[in-house]
Amino acid sequence: xxxxxxxxxxxxxxxxxxxxxxxxxxxxxxxxxxxxxxxxxxxxxxxxxxxxxxxxxxxxxxxxxxxxxxxxxxxxxxxxxxxxxxxxxxxxxxxxxxxxxxxxxxxxxxxxxxxxxxxxxxxxxxxxxxxxxxxxxxxxxxxxxxxxxxxxxxxxxxxxxxxxxxxxxxxxxxxxxxxxxxxxxxxxxxxxxxxxxxxxxxxxxxxxxxxxxxxxxxxxxxxxxxxxxxxxxxxxxxxxxxxxxxxxxxxxxxxxxxxxxxxxxxxxxxxxxxxxxxxxxxxxxxxxxxxxxxxxxxxxxxxxxxxxxxxxxxxxxxxxxxxxxxxxxxxxxxxxxxxxxxxxxxxxxxxxxxxxxxxxxxxxxxxxxxxxxxxxxxxxxxxxxx
Length: 386
Ligand SMILES: *Cc1c(COP(=O)(O)O)cnc(C)c1O
Prior knowledge:
Aspartate Aminotransferase, domain 1; Aspartate Aminotransferase, domain 2; 2 domains
């Protein structure tokens, strides 16, 4: 007989079952939501671990963190009320004057936050061209660096950064590497395995997948003083994820693998269809063999490449805006990683002064029928260009 005693179920199975959750008292296969803001002490007047007050965390949030830690292969994960509050906690924990190296163009909210801290004299900031490892290395070497920030794939042009190479650059300089891999969730990209010290995801996006909460998560291979500091920032700023939202996140993550499989397959179909199209100047999608980041992305995304892409349309800026306006299946909305496909004219959304191509449309490809998505873009393009 085969010995099955050491067989571990796959991540797919464990995530679909929220780590084989069964409630002790009732046998419920779905966790209850505990909304308490405060918890009574026990008969000895001791605090009942692990919860004390809302800002310390709660059961549903810890459950969601355990699922993400499993996905990431992490020692620990911490969930915040948004991706931005998670990112801010990392920036906030840096000592005054710390040198941070980050992409010149990246997710606009994080960039704005880094620039604000730099303007206020809290940190010093150097930049590099996303995906350019030589420029990254030069920026890190130019002065004593505390933190290297990479985003891969990188908004909104989806440049790919080699996480292992960036980790080496950071570690050789005594710096930590944070990898924002929101565009490719941890079921396809495990940044810690490639050497990142902190893996960061806006869980608003693929992890939740239903565009109905905001959440952010940090995961680490090793805990320690810096991790305790970040947890303390979360507590004192009151940015822990709410139990209701954690419950929604747990429900969303049960279908993470299925959703992401379909998003990736759809994105590949859309990218191939519009690559070389008469109305399209370029398709930025690491899944295309011609894309400069293709080879690294293939390794880093388990061959799946993700559901995010951008297209630069020919013609005028107004033509590009019209394509977004004329779509009937794609929603003209910001955000990404949901089951529904979204299209947005990045320049309108990120505002004047942000370096983005004026004819760039960012597409978040959902789980709909791929032909419907292709047809929708075709009709919007021909209407906009006529
Ligand atoms: C959305 C996003 C964030 C910010 O997350 P929120 O949950 O919106 O606060 C950070 N980085 C990337 C790449 C994102 O897409």
